[in-house]
Structure formats: C-alpha cells, structure tokens
Specification:
- The structure is a single chain.
- The chain has 400 residues and is α/β, with parallel strands linked by helices.
- Helices cover 38% and strands 21% of the residues.
- The chain has 15 helices and 14 strands.
- The chain has an 8-stranded mixed sheet, with helices on both faces. Strands 11-10-9-12-14-13 form a 6-stranded mixed sheet, sandwiched between helices.
- Strand 3 and strand 4 form a beta hairpin.
- Bound molecules: adenosine-5'-diphosphate (ADP).
- Adenosine-5'-diphosphate (ADP) binds next to helix 10 and helix 12.
C-alpha cells in the first residue's frame, strides 16, 4: 500500500500544510496542499490538488467551543486526508519549528521530553514557537500514535564559525546560550540543495541568498554552508520586515523601557508586530499594499527596506570576502521585480549587472536575472521549505 507524509507550518492565524506521496527510492511528490485559515475567528479548511486545482473550501464549525479552532481544524484536515488519500497510509507529520536553540542541530523525533525542551525556547521566538508547538500538541491529542518530527529553522546555521555566532558580551551571558542563531534555515537549506543544478561550479563559491517574505533575512554561504546570517539571537534582527524592525540599537530598548516606561511586553509587541513596513508606512506590513500606496510614508518605507538590504548585503559580502552570486527567494524575492531591481542596482559595486527584461518577465521557476557579462550572477529561485521538511521527516523515520 502506498504511503504519505504530512508537513505542517503553523502560524498565529493560519496553518499551512502539504501532503506528500512516499514512494520507495523515488522523489517525494506533493499530492495536495492547503491552509486552515481564520483560526480564532472564522476558520476554514482550504485544499488544492497536484496542479493547483481547488479541492476543498469548507467552513469549520466551532460555534460550540471557539477555543477549539485549531484542534477542530486539524480534526477536519485528517478526516479530509483519510477520505481523499486514495488508500495511502499516513506515516508521520513533519513540522517547521522556528527555534531549536543550542540543543537541536538535526531534526528530532518528537517525544514529550523534547516538546518540553522546545517550549523552553518560546521566549526566543514569541511570534512563532508557541504556534509551532501547539500544532504538535493538537495532533498528539488527536492521533497519539502518529509519529511527529520537528525540523528547525536554526539548524542550517549551526555550522557557522564561532565569530559569526558570538556577541561581545561577558562569558557568563554567552555561555547561557545568548548568541546568534539565524533563522529561515529550512528555506536556505532547500536553496542550497538546488544551487548546483542552476549555478554549476559557482554553487560552491560565495553566494548570498535573500529570503524576503513577511520575515526577511540574508544568508551568506560558502560551499553551500551557512557562513553568516542577518538574523541573530531572535528573528527580530537584521533586515527590516513586514512588521518587525530588524537591527536596532539596543539603547533604543533601554530608552523605551527606562525613559518611556514601556513594559517588556509592550516593547515586544512594538518591535515584532507594529514596526517594519507597517510601522514606517503606517498602512500595511504587506509589500504589495505598501507598493500600491502613494504616500511619502509608504515610499520612505520602501526606501528604508531597500537601504537595509543594501547595507546588510555589504556586511555579508565582507564576511565572505567577496561575492559570486545573489539569489532572491520567498514572496517578495520571487515576485517583487521592483525591489529586486533596486537591490541589484544598489549592489552594482559588488559586480551585479541586472538584465532588466529578465527581471521584469512574468515567469515562474528558477531564473537568471543578470546579464551574460555580469561578474556576479543574480537569480530568482522559488523556495520550498515544505519539501525540505518532508525530506527530513522521511530521513528521521528511516533512521528509527
Ligand atoms: P511568509 O513569510 O509568510 O511565508 P511570503 O514568503 O509569502 O510570506 O511573502 C509575503 C510577502 O510577499 C508579502 O509582503 C507580499 O506582499 C509579498 N509579495 C507577494 N507577491 C508580491 C509581488 N508580486 N510584488 C511584491 N511583493 C509581493
């Protein structure tokens, strides 16, 4: 009988999922994907098939107990899979877990003890970790015997040199795990896996990948390993993001708390949820909306977004000692031609010569957007974190 794996990426108001067909010795094939959205308000289950055709759009009834939104969503998802999985046995669920701390340098088979350890990292990723873990809890309640695997966004960066990870703080602080972890590791690991197919020998060189989604970061790779990342101890550092501020003088936090009397919780909300594109534009944390807004604040928000990339690109190129290729990925990186154009123009000093037509072309899939004569290659490569999680989950299952 054929088998399937389910991948879950659980956020605050929505859960993204993908189901993969598992055939021995063959690549994993995605058979369906979808979302449970509107958790906490009016949840719905949406499912699309292999070719993107809509398979399901169902309201999830939680009138009797609104607090059960996510649990009821998962129950309906598993019911749907059981009815539509054409006799496939569900082998396991793989989860994206944002923070693995210093303890987890590889994907982990989830046990109650491991869940407790992962819970300890919640203060380090308050926007993501609780939702990642509550999905694992909900599925354990529904199907206690179904194996679950946690795959970490921090793992790809664990091989960085000490200097790339360290803060210049006293040893008793750094010794307690206060260091740069870096995030978006599953996305970077996927891109690293496809680099040779597109870049040939250059894949082993000095490559910077720009993951520009709602969260955003850059990763410097040498020989397809992470050498440096713009994200640090938390996913707040580095680039300006949808609602997160990115790099900030720590003195600002002291001022907010000391002089303005803000609580730690209020500062957390400000920096994670009210800053970035949203805070500067005053309209939205969504790049498409900001681009479509004709106000000086919206234009400045984009100027600052691009300027921060320009600065961090220089910083990561310095940590690599030069640059051979720049790769754009995630929502803005894959679709935002204007942002790519401005970033590449700013990076002309690094040796990037943009092919304007290739950049503007409405194409999907991996594509080169630099001229044939460009010393540094610029590419767009769609990321696939779900496939990376499915691969890891399969590997963990095979090792049991
Ligand atoms: P997440 O980090 O939640 O996975 P995505 O990778 O989907 O998010 O990225 C979402 C961002 O991508 C949003 O800011 C959205 O506006 C932006 N985006 C999507 N399509 C475009 C586009 N055509 N032009 C500019 N930005 C876009």
């Amino acid at each position: 009988m054929s088998q399937a794996l389910l991948v879950i990426n659980s956020g605050s108001s929505s859960v993204k999922f993908a189901a993969y067909d598992v055939e021995t010795d063959k690549a994993l094939t995605r058979i369906a994907h979808g979302r449970i959205e509107g958790i906490g308000s009016a949840p719905r289950l949406l499912v699309w098939g292999r070719s993107g055709e809509a398979l399901e759009d169902r309201r999830i009834d939680i009138a009797a107990d609104p607090a059960l939104g996510a649990d009821e969503g998962f129950r309906q998802l598993f019911d749907w899979l059981a009815q539509h999985a054409a006799g496939r046995t569900l082998l396991a669920v793989g989860h994206r877990v944002v923070h693995g701390g210093e303890l987890f340098t590889r994907p982990a088979f989830v046990t109650p003890a491991i869940l407790a350890q992962l819970d300890g990292f919640t203060p380090l990723a308050p926007l993501h970790q609780p939702h990642n873990l509550s999905a694992i809890h909900a599925i354990a309640r529904l199907l206690p015997d179904l194996p679950q695997v946690a795959c970490f966004d921090t793992e790809f960066h664990t091989m960085q040199d000490w200097v790339a990870q360290a803060y210049a703080l006293p040893r008793h602080i750094t010794g307690a795990g206060v260091k740069r972890y870096g995030f978006h590791g599953l996305s970077y690991e996927y891109i690293a896996s496809i680099l040779p197919g597109h870049l040939g020998a250059t894949a082993s060189g000095r490559v910077i990948v720009a993951h520009l989604g709602n969260g955003a970061s850059l990763c410097a790779m040498q020989d397809r390993r992470s050498v440096a990342s713009t994200m640090g101890f938390t996913a707040l550092d580095g680039l300006m993001m949808g609602t997160r501020c990115g790099s900030l003088d720590p003195g600002v936090v002291l001022y907010l708390m000391g002089a303005l009397g803000m609580t730690a919780q209020a500062v957390e909300k400000l920096l994670y949820e009210q800053s970035g594109l949203l805070g500067v534009s005053g309209v939205s944390g969504d790049m498409r909306t900001v681009e479509a807004t004709d106000t000086p604040e919206a234009r400045q928000a984009i100027d600052l977004y691009v300027y921060r990339i320009r600065q961090e690109l220089g910083s990561l190129a310095a940590s690599l000692g030069g640059l051979d290729a720049l790769v754009f990925t995630a929502g803005i990186g894959e679709n935002g031609a204007m942002i790519r154009r401005r970033v590449c123009q700013d990076a002309a000093w690094l040796g990037i010569e943009l092919d304007g037509d290739a950049n503007q072309a409405s194409a999907s899939g991996a594509r080169c957007i630099s001229t044939a004569g460009s010393r540094v290659a610029a590419w767009v490569m769609p990321t696939n974190e779900e496939l990376m999680i499915a691969r890891h989950t399969q590997t963990v299952l095979n090792s049991l």
